[in-house]
Design a protein that fits this description.
single chain; alpha+beta; 6-stranded antiparallel β-sheet; 5 helices; 8 strands; globular; transmembrane
Length: 240
Amino acid sequence: MTTTDQQPQQQRRRRRRITGIAAIVFLVVIAAVAVFVAVTGGESSSPRPVPPSRPSAPAPSTDSPVEGNQALPTRAPQVRWEVVQGIALPISQEAGPGMQGGAVAADYQRSPVGALLASMQISTRYLVLPGDGWRQVTEHQVLPGPGRDAYIKARSSAGDDLGSARSQFAGFRFVTYTPDEAVIQLASRAANGGLVGTTVTVRWSEGDWKLELQPNGAVSPGATQLADLSYYTPFSAGVN
């Protein structure tokens, strides 16, 4: 009889569960603030991102009015921070979320700042909330399609124990923005000080910003190790 055959059934189940957790963490490799990413120490070999040009905004859809300042922010917005599952998430009285208190934090301003806060809140909550919380966020705030279906399937088998390490949002940069769609790169700082960048897309749908996933269920096309926050707008030191 092999060593594997001699292992208790409970231990084998635990190994399968850990494998599922590892798969979901890789799948959703997130930015947000809240990426469960192992960032190695030392200098990054990845090139620094090229600062984006500011796009001209086409006429927005008319399902709800454009609100607030439509200029891309040049500094971190004024927010208060709420800790959710060990991760600090931003809340603005003007830009949202206006609806809070449960799993779903919704009702964002149709503005660049509103899109930024939505990208951070949703891309964290749909991953880390325990019990049925992640599913509520996914069903209400993630756009339907193959990506959402793939994520729900993977997350359902992962359970709630996604690990204890939490990275925190360190900065942001807009790649593109219109009142209908925003593509935002979010930098997160791991406990060891390493930085990772991911790209999050949110779209305006049914009167609010919604998260768009990749076809395989990931929030970002990939993750990039960063040497520093060059070309990113940093958040206040108090949240890192």
